[in-house]
Amino acid sequence: MTINNNSTMKILNNPHTHTRFANSRREKTLQLSNSSTLQRAFTLVEIMLVVAIIGILAALVIPRIAGNSERARVTAVQADIQGGIKTALGEFEVDNGFYPQSLQDLLQKPRNARNWHGPYLDSLPLDPWHNPYLYSYPGKHNPASYDLWSAGPDGKSGNEDDIGNWQTQ
């Protein structure tokens, strides 16, 4: 069998017919795609810059959110004092002619209550910090009435973070 040199050259030059050239072309394609992938990746400096920006934004936003939740708790205490508990104490006073000696008297009939129509509350509420509301009759701040207050975020009564009915009137 005779081989024509021209046909051999045509076969070798055609990348679709010869594996040596086909592999070489695939390798070039892989090299090109790998180099373009490297160009699209983020550098360490870029990633650190993004992390720093996110940290700065978090430092600005989180205190504002935390401040709003504390303000919402104070508003909830004021609503309890001027709302449901005040209403229950007022109903007790209308029925019996005097305010109860303790908040427990709103749930269970005291011995000295002749016209008790309670219970005036389903249960004794807790403030948003999960502490019981405090009550005294006659009140220190309201001698003709009662004092009703929350010990506030620290849970200790008698300091500046107390929230009472004498402040919200």
Furnish the topology, listing elements before pairings.
Layout: H1 5-13, H2 19-40, H3 44-82, H4 84-96, E1 134-136, E2 147-150, E3 163-164
Antiparallel strand pairs: 1-2, 2-3
Helix pairs in contact: 3-4
Features:
Glycoprotein, Type 4 Pilin, 169 residues, mainly alpha, 4 helices, 3 strands
How would you describe this structure to a colleague?
By secondary structure, the protein is mainly alpha-helical. The protein has a domain at 73-164: Glycoprotein, Type 4 Pilin. It contains 4 helices and 3 strands. It has helices at 5-13, 19-40, 44-82, 84-96; strands spanning 134-136, 147-150, 163-164. The protein has a 3-stranded antiparallel β-sheet, covered by helices on one side. Helix 3 packs parallel to helix 4 (84-96). The longest helix is centred in the middle third of the chain and has 39 residues, at 44-82.
CATH architecture classification of the domain at 73-164: 2-Layer Sandwich
Total strand segments: 3
Distance between the termini: 115 Å
Task: Identify the CATH homologous superfamily of the domain at 73-164.
Answer: Glycoprotein, Type 4 Pilin
> Which strand-content bin applies to the residues?
5-15%
CATH topology annotation of the domain at 73-164: Glycoprotein, Type 4 Pilin
> What is the subunit arrangement here?
single chain
CATH domain class name of the domain at 73-164? Alpha Beta
Helix content: 40-55%
Low-confidence stretches: none
Main pleated-sheet profile: 3 strands, antiparallel
Q: Taking Cα atoms only, what radius of gyration do you get, to the nearest Å?
A: 40 Å
What's the total helix number? 4
